[in-house]
Amino acid sequence: MNKKKAVWIVLSVFLCSFLMIFVDGWIQPSYWIKSLIKMVLFLLIPMIYVIFNHETNELKRLFKFSKKGLFTAFLIGISLYILMIDGYFVLRKTVDFSLIPQHLVMDIGVNADNFVVVAFYISLINSFLEEFFFRGYSFLFLKEKTSGWFAFVMSSFVFALYHLGMMKGWFQDGFMLVTFFGLFLGGCIFNVLDMKNETIYSGWLVHAFVNLGINTIGLILFQLI
Q1: Helical H runs in 109-172?
Q2: Per-residue exposure over 91-130, b if at least 16 CB sit within 10 Å of its own CB, e if not
Q3: Residue 220's Cα: distance from chain center in Å?
């Protein structure tokens, strides 16, 4: 156990996540400016840690490609995608999803004209960035310096908290608690997948399918399909 390195990782994860919540909830720049800030925080801060602590080999391990677990991840991803689309059609009679496009347009300038490009970015690139930060840096790096269970729970909790802050105002208050639980569970699933082969590819594949499901619902809400 390396307490100094563990404290560094935990503090930087919370700091970067809360800064992004502040950017999303209060500054509310355009989507691409927000994405640039996110890249700086979610990529640069972990890279500073890696360079300062001479953990280049540990970083390379995160990106070592392996087919192991990818088929399972693919099946889970497809299943979650179908579940999300079905869930939307079941819940739309009781949950007011119209708040989502309203907030996207007002808060970060995402609208029907640019949503397809944004959806592509979110599904592939943004999901990879988040997997690197929340699973690679916040979980796989941290679990080598502290308790594995602590890293597992902490990374999933901050992942859920970050996304809940980003979704402020999207749903009625009662549904936000359900959303937080779902996000926390999703973070746990990603951790389990990535823990098996110590890379982020399995989690990224499932995360991409989940984002694709969200973006498919977005296409429906923007009346693009």
Answers
A1: 115-120, 127-130, 148-166
A2: eeeebeeeebbeebeebbbbeeeebeebbebbbeebbbbb
A3: 22
Cα separation, 177 vs 30, in Å, equals 27
Alpha helix locations (H) across 23-97? 31-39, 45-52, 56-62, 70-91
- Give residue 209's Cα distance to chain centre: 12
Q: pTM of the prediction?
A: 0.88
Where does residue 213 rank: exposed (0-12), middle (13-18), buried (19+ CB within 10 A)? buried
Q: What is the CA radius of gyration of the chain?
A: 17
When pLDDT is averaged across residues 187-210 and rounded to a whole number, the result is 92
Q: What is the pLDDT of residues 117-155, one digit of tens each?
A: 888 998 899 999 999 999 999 999 999 999 889 999 999
User: Amino acid identity, residue 57?
Assistant: N
- The Cα–Cα gap between 199 and 59 comes to 10
Q: Which of 141, 144, 123, 122 is closest to 132 using CA atoms?
A: 141
Selection from 37, 45, 42, 62 nearest residue 8 by Cα: 45
- Which helix (H) or strand (E) segment holds residue 5: the answer is helix 3-22
CA distance 202 to 215: 20
* Residue of 41, 31, 80 lying closest to 193 (CA atoms): 80
